[in-house]
Amino acid sequence: MFVIEALAAGAETAAHGAAHAAEHGGEHGGSFPPFDTSTFASQLFWLLLTFGFLYWFMSRVIVPRLGNILETRQDRIAQDLDRAHELKSEADAAFAAYEQELAQAKATANDIGNKARDAAKSAAETERQKVEAELADKLAEAETRIKSIRDTAMADVGAIAAETAEAVVKQLIGGTVTKAQIDGALKSAGN
Question: Mind listing the pLDDT tens digit of every residue in the chain (191 residues)?
Fold first, then answer.
């Protein structure tokens, strides 16, 4: 209810002001006040005073604060860039160290591989020599056995030949032959 009364009072005041302006409209001359030449001096005075105050306020308060803000940002950006360069240098150094460690690890692994290969080669060579020595021993033993068997067989061949010759002579001639005669004939046939 109070709002309605306030609106009604405002409307009544506006209507009263419009009626007053219509009654006295011819007294003020109809020119726009900023273009009225009689008020130029006071307008210029207030313009210069306001401009001077705003200029002073801007130069003493706003511009230094903006300058400080910009300088702070500039310093922070410079610090961030310096830190980024430091981190990049550290990263490059770490990468170089990593590359060096990797190359060193590869060289070490290669050396270990070469040593293992040489050790395996040496062990294989030792084993091969051992096997060859065993085979040479077995071969010498086999040759000795073969010679023994051959000598035995050759001795037996002479006896068998003598017996066979004696049997053949008995069958063919019907006579007997002495062992000395058979041995002499076999020796002459062997030369």
Answer: 554 565 555 555 544 544 544 555 545 556 787 788 888 899 999 999 999 999 999 999 999 999 999 999 999 999 999 999 999 999 999 999 999 999 999 999 999 999 999 999 999 999 999 999 999 999 999 999 998 888 887 777 777 777 777 777 777 777 777 777 777 777 777 66
| Element housing 137 (H / E) | helix 63-172
| 185 CB-near residues (< 8 Å, 6+ apart) | 165
> Does the model's pTM come out above 0.85?
no
